[in-house]
Design goal:
- By secondary structure, the protein is mainly α.
- Helix content is 65%, strand content 0%.
- Helix 3 packs antiparallel against helix 4.
- It starts with a helix and ends in a 5-residue tail after the last helix.
Length: 148
């Protein structure tokens, strides 16, 4: 009999606490959301392209390290010259020059596969040099692309 009373007591305590906790969460959420609108972040064409280039270069790095065939130059990389940036003023002469260096290094990987590692790292250098001036956020991520 004592066990049944104890179980009933624990059950009622659990339900009571759960209801209070739920009520507190609902009130805090409604207070925070009043007067604020949620805006979904949309990446610019350039941001999307750079994310894709990063993924492509991760795959390329793996192929170079494993000695697989390099494949063909991904032509979508050339969109770096025309993609719309988040801030259009960033598309200045410095960026254009760095983009050319990056594309040249990337093309050399496919034209000269014997020196793919060197050309790949030169492409990573071009990314870093630009991001050190323009947008530093992705620098730690970019550095992970280097082939030792």
């Amino acid at each position: 009999m004592k066990n049944k009373v104890l179980i009933l007591y624990l059950f009622l305590t659990f339900i009571g606490c759960a209801k209070k906790e739920s009520k507190v969460k609902d009130e805090s959420c409604s207070k925070e959301s009043k007067g604020k609108s949620f805006k979904m972040y949309e990446m610019s064409e350039m941001s999307t392209l750079m994310e894709q280039m990063y993924v492509d270069n991760q795959r390329l790095k793996s192929r170079i390290l494993s000695g697989d065939t390099i494949g063909k130059f991904p032509n979508h990389f050339l969109k770096i010259h025309s993609s719309v940036m988040t801030d259009s003023t960033e598309n200045d002469e410095f960026f254009k020059q760095q983009a050319k260096l990056f594309i040249k290094a990337q093309e050399l990987i496919y034209q000269d596969p014997k020196n793919a590692k060197q050309h790949f790292n030169e492409g990573v250098d071009a990314c870093l040099q630009c991001h050190e001036v323009k947008c530093g956020g992705p620098i730690p991520k970019i550095k992970k692309l280097y082939i030792p």
